[in-house]
Amino acid sequence: MAIKxxxxxxxxxxxxKDALRLDERIGKAPNLPSKRTQELQGRVARGKPVVSVxxxxxVGCSTLAYVSDDGKLLDVEGNPDSPVNGGHLCPKGSAxxxxxxxxxxxTTAKYRAPYATEWEDxxxxxxxxxxxxRVIETRERTFVRERDGKRVNHTLGIASLGGATFGSExxxxxxxxxxxxxxxxxxxxxxx
Amino acid sequence: xxxxxxxxxxxxxTTFVQDLENADCILIEGSNFAECHPVAFRFVMKAKERGAxxxxxxxxxxxxxxxxxxxxxxxxxxxxxxxxxLISHVLESGKYFREYVDAFTNADYLVxxxxxxxxxxxxxxxxxxxxxxxxxxxxxxxGTTNSGDASAIDGNKHSAYNRETWAFELEEVPRYDGNGTVxxxxxxxxxxxxxxxxxxLKRHFARYTPEMVEDVCGTPREKFFQIAxxxxxxxxxxxTTAFAYAxxxxxxxxxxxxxxxxxxxxxLLGNMGRPGGGIMALRGHxxxxxxxxxxxxxxxxxxxxxxxxxxxxxxxxxxxxxxxTKPTGWWANTPKYFISLLKAWYGEHATAENDFCYDYLPxxxxxxxMMSTTIAMKDDEVEGYFVIGQNPSASGMNGELTSDAFExxxxxxxxxxxxxxxxxxxxxxxxxxxxxxxxxxYLPSAVVLEKEGTxxxxxxxxQWHDKAIEPPGDTVTDAWIFYTLGKMFKAHYADxxxxxxxxxxxxxxxxxxxxxxxxxxxEPSIHRIMKEINGYSVADGTQLKTFTELxxxxxxxxxxxxxxxxxxxxxxLMSRNRKADDWVSLEWGFSWPANRRILYNRASADAAGKPxxxxxxxxxxxxxxxxxxxxxxxxxxxxxxxxxxxKPGASGMDAHGGAxxxxxxxxxxxxxxxxxxxxxxxxxxxxxxxxSPVKNALYGQQNNPVAMEWRRSDNAYNGTDNPDYxxxxxxxxxxxxxxxxxxxxxxxxELQPAAFAELDPELAxxxxxxxxxxxxxxxxxxxxxxxxxxxxxLQPLRLGKGRRIHQIGIPYNxxxxxxxxxxxxxxxxxxxxxxxxxxxxxxxxxxNIRLGRRPTRTRTVVDEAVPQxxxxxxxxxxxxxxxxxxx
Lengths: 192, 887
Prior knowledge:
The complex is a heterodimer. By secondary structure, chain A is α+β, with helices and mostly antiparallel strands. Chain A is built from 7 helices and 8 strands; from the N terminus they run H-H-H-E-E-E-H-H-E-E-H-E-E-H-E. Chain A has helices spanning 9-20, 22-25, 35-39, 91-94, 96-100, 124-142, 168-181; strands at 48-53, 62-67, 73-78, 110-112, 120-121, 143-147, 150-161, 183-187. Chain B starts with a helix and ends in a 6-residue tail after the last strand. Chain B is globular and about 80 Å long. Chain B has a 6-stranded mixed β-sheet with strand order 22-24-23-29-21-27. In chain B, a hairpin with a 5-residue loop joins strand 25 and strand 26. By secondary structure, chain B is an alpha/beta fold. The relative contact order of chain B is 0.15. Chains A and B meet through strand 1, strand 2, helix 4, helix 5 and strand 4 of A and helix 14, helix 17, strand 10, strand 11 and strand 12 of B.
């Protein structure tokens, strides 16, 4: 959702002052900005703000991610409309740009064969196929229908960890999928 | 959060951060609020500007302490003594909010005659069954899921405590409809009977004195009295006090009881459900509340319904509903929520004839929590592991055991945005990758700006975030991964006739994205998933507006009843509401349940429905309109008059009167004494941490008798008063770092470049350590190194018998990867588990410190598991009971 940046009052005041030529009238020397300075714009000036939420602690600060016309992230700032953060962000929230645009990020699917010493890049579909095959193989081998005469319909051969860093909808389909597979060893950071 | 849940009915934070501004006093304990939740801390500062008293109780003098009016130091691990002494103080001095307590709590219930307190049994309660080993089914987390009599759920057959006596005396009263009688808790409104809860509580906490606080916590007596005065002066009709805590209170082997102590104190002070009051749980991850509500947790289904368990004999739908439907209170609705969940998951295949596919759900056969599962991995009982946005090798406990356990897996999938210590565990120091057989996969996942969806903040508020940019390279969303795997499994099992594959065949999975571009990429529609979570009418697909529309006949489907109302029609998302005001902001986001911002807010009015005071007006009974009204959504049946009598023998909410604000509890009252809901006691009791420098000064019983530990060569414990480890060890985080999500960011790495260990100047002199020196910190488990930060923020504490205690603090943010690196304290902290929520003990331990760096890590740990107390025929048992009383 696009939100119009708020009008900066100090800018309004500045414009009014300029229109009235206040500085010159009180005898102050004109301070002519260079052409370059005149043409300079804030780094988010041409960006479209998109409303998001900070991914760090659970306070839930609302953010504005400024995106250029060609889809590049320009910067991330606190959303002044939020009743929670009122435009503020802490150092971590202020660094969401660095979390997102970062050359250290791993953006390829990777594989490490047994006993290998390094990761290797692999096509995403290849990795997905291989993961699915391993899940099925383990499930087939470890699925237990009954134990001690009681129906259990589960596998303790597969486990999952994580949840607090991704969305509620994602948690929902993950839980539904794992339970339908018979996986019960499901945990996330809520214990921690 | 059963500390809150067993007292009030729900585990969530009871208030919202903006409302802290209205507090007259704020007690912050177990949290470094200013540094760890800095943006919400502005409401604490606003309260201070308005004249509120800010109190900080913490082992370290932090930035929170710096702006507090009162700072009190405390030995890590002793908070129950401190809070218990406050309880004793308000009870003995009569300075609690008597009218509130009389109206809204179980203070006048009579406790059973055969109940024995820790006073009588030197630190344990009645029902202790000595000599009987815990087995895995006994540690099922029965009490956390909803309100009610948990002892009736698991029957206590294997429990170390038989909780039968932790209950109220019952009396027979005529049923409301005249048809015979019904048993209800016996009450003595005069509160003269010594077995009245309020009197039991008074005796239980009598030994929690200011002197004991000084001796055990190291907190000076005058600080204690200052705080007691501030709390009592700022609680009552005209004034309210708020409490704020974080993991400083939860990560203990008796963690749940820390929160219980706070809950009892806040109830006695009459601060629950009121503006400027309540208990603010400050959570650490952006969606940790959401991942609890719609849980990726072994023991819960969405909306705080328990997973079916063999130990509770829930083989059929009728049995499940029998144990989990409460006769009285809101949980009488369980069948509506549970059957609607099965309809959401298995669609048209879930019918009344086949018990709505109840048998598709797997059953629990033990404690399948993180630590238990990790041990099972090490013992070769787990083949494959998905790790998604979590980093247990660096941020967990016993990092070496954890990473070693991964070597025993056949395969492991890591889903993250960066390389983590967990993903590349086979490269860690001291390990030769060519000996590690685990097949490893890494899937690059999108960060928050690259996807849309919902996150639930620390005060239960759902906020939708829009997608700003496309993810880079092969990066995909977590939703894409789960959705795609689901489609692949469906395709694989499409023609199977094996009954075990039916859940996959029949699972509803229709999340096709309406946008052609996203659809082409295979991204599911997050909005469609949220609509299913919200719930809809099966007949025509109409979205539901409130959970009161849910039915138990299969005519409604709903993924998580507590979220119903967030997607009330085909297009609207209340979580995307973005209109704020200067207080409650009902139109910013959506707060579960039903957009209520302060929970139990009926308690903001007196028994007759009138605000306790004009100054603290919030929700009240409007006589003219015959309904509850105010500035928030009432957390109460809106048309139920305050003078409505309770109907003994009626089901559900009819059994509650109009003056019982805690709807999810059986009787609608706050539970000062919890009847069998928690595994380690109906009232909080101080036990020392499993690693402690001192003996328990209050009782003969040293540790939580039902805490779980693993006595193995790869999980060594320091024990009590071990001269090799004389200092208290605690851990915390810094403002600029969270963990792997910050260590790769250059801006943040510059601000907090490396790990450090904080120690007081006196200890530094004694150990010849100067600020900036390398130091090695050790426990029986291992050693880590860090730069010394010699700082007056930590001070030695003077305990009883002239004992002088030093505390050492280590940040939990670091690991070997990223730009800001350092050893993680996870290599110092062994697995120990709280019996109620399976949480570990990272906030309180013991250690030693010496000048200089540690040696390079080599393999020294014996790889064979040493299972303890593993009975025959129980392959998944790993917990061993410790410190058996009377043994």
